[in-house]
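step: validate -> pass
step: tokenize input -> pass
step: predict -> running
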Amino acid sequence: MKELMDGYVGVKFKTILLGSEIDFNIDDIFSHFQKNCRLLKRHGMTPQNAGNISVRHNRGFIITASGSNLGSLQRDDIVYVQKCVIEDNLVEYMGPNLPSSETFMHSMIFQCKPALKAIIHVHDPETLDRATIELEATEEEVPYGTLALARMACDTFLKADNIIALKNHGYVAVGKDLNTAADLVRATHLKLIERRTVQ
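step: predict -> pass
step: emit ->
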């Protein structure tokens, strides 16, 4: 049974299911997702169903499913998003489960960071207080899974390199591939812990 965080109510957008099975091979992609999620779990950044990861694929992107526990990711936690229609609050997808509640945030970041291929969003309770001071951070706390959060994240990335903090929420990192984004999250986590210890 998957553990859900307090206050989690699922996705906040409408969906069109294009097929309950993804119509291409996801073996390699799932392996990369699982490997990087295990790395993040070792550093305490995958509590319950917190966080989501994605990679560009064809004209859309592959993302973890709503309610996924990244620390114990399963094959049916992988979803392909073919299209996000922001003005209709609508997501078209393939897969056995609904796409992540932060699907619009991933979609909008891919648009504002067109050269990059992967996104990792994690919760890091151990360092979040320092992250919002030392990283570019969103100006205010807004509810998860909303267009307001997606837009704020995109605006913050315009002032940042490849990692930002969502105020009172978590990190979002981007990279040329999943390994690069995960390495950036891990390095940021360790750097913030070291600075807190020194002080």
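step: describe -> The chain has one domain: 14-198.
step: cleanup -> pass
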